[in-house]
Amino acid sequence: MPSGRALGRRFRWLWASYAVSSYGSGLGFGAFPLIAVLVLHSGPTQVAALSAAGRAVGAVVAVPLGPWMEFRRKRPVMVATDLIRCAALLSVPAAFALGRLSFAQLLVVSVVVAAANIAFNAASGAFLKALLPPEDLLVANGRFESTSWSATMVGPPLGGAAIGLFGPMTTVVADGVSYLLSALGIRAIGGKEPSPVRTGAPRLRAADLLEGWRHILTHPGLRPLFFNAMTVNGLIMASEPLLAVLLLGRLGFAPWQYGLAFAAPCLGGLVGSRLARRLVARSGQRRVLLTAGVLRACWPVGLAFVRPGVPGLVLVIVIQFGLVTCCALFNPVLATYRLDQTPADRVARTLSAWSVGTSAAIAALTAVWGLLAALTGPRVAIAAAGVLLLATPLLLPRRANAARNTAEPAASLP
Q: pTM of the full predicted structure?
């Protein structure tokens, strides 16, 4: 827990809902590729398409959801998206039990879940801004960040053990049920959420689809942070499957070593999220964003120098620990700054546009880096991503006036 500060019963229910769905997703991490390979006997091209296309198409599907949910109560949207994710995921083991599971169904489910993730995150961000006063947002985002990294640390190893004992559908069921429990937790938050008052045209217009991007791209602080987030997240995520090929294939790491190399560094997520609030209080939001943003770009290039054996494993763990710590420090500060700088009547559209943009960038760069690795080898492609990451701090806002608060105060929930 990043801070002992009490944020109230309603936030505790929101946090509990986030935690249960995060741990469910951690258990289900990598389940679809495993099912595609072990159950449907899919090839590497199909497995890669499942990951990239699901994220990319899901982002496209989510484009109109931000404007649609902006002027609706957010809790019903969050409950609905939880139930949609639950139903979509549970359809996979149901189809498997009936002998009707297909690759096309996995692809559709991955698209639905990706779009619902974007919608849920946008609605929950808007709800959080209305639920808590501005001074508590960083504490809340730090707790979400620490929960996310702890789920990433614990979930995949337990999920792998469950798959080994009970089969590949086990973790999909656990993930689906976690969204049902999350929906019940959000329902238990209680209280009355007022319906947002729409300003301007009474109906959804084409211009509303662009309002989130318009706010991001015209804001002197959010614009560089948006491009930085797209580039950094895209390059890091594009390198992950290539690192798996390098470690498990060419360098001969055992699967348990590979799992350890990515689970142990998640402790850095707890460290970074705990430090966020006290460092912002000491040094200021802008300086923390700039420093953490620069430091997180310095680690991944080291992965190009990994060698076989224990020294290589230690190097991966150290690099990943440093990267995760910096990301866990940067992310809650960014999330808080983004909420602070966004008017209450544009939060859902802005967060949705942000998620759509970063998801599209990750999908595109993953595809490009897969092609680059095919032409040059995984080590060269990882090195190229690391070198490009060294230039990403140039996208961070450097002027003091870029951090000015231009947002309108949010209406608090009763």
A: 0.85
